[in-house]
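Please fill in the sequence for the structure shown.

STRUCTURE ENCODING:
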């Protein structure tokens, strides 16, 4: 019996620079969130949500994002 094709989700990679000068590269954001009128602004929200989840698990406060840009640009 043939397998049903699964939906592929495309990810866009971002480099994030925080207020303290640290950088995290290749942060994944679902490509379906991007585009439209907001452009890459939705990526900031998604990355902030990721940071909040990481913060809860580590017990450390989340860092403030200074800038984000697509990786490789």
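FILLED IN BY: designer on duty
SEQUENCE:
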């Amino acid at each position: 019996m043939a397998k049903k094709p699964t939906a592929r989700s495309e990810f866009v990679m971002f480099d994030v620079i925080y207020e303290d000068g640290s950088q995290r590269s290749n942060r994944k954001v679902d490509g379906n969130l991007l585009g439209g009128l907001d452009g890459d602004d939705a990526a900031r929200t998604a990355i902030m949500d990721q940071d909040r989840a990481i913060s809860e698990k580590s017990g450390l406060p989340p860092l403030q994002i200074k800038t984000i840009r697509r990786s490789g640009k």
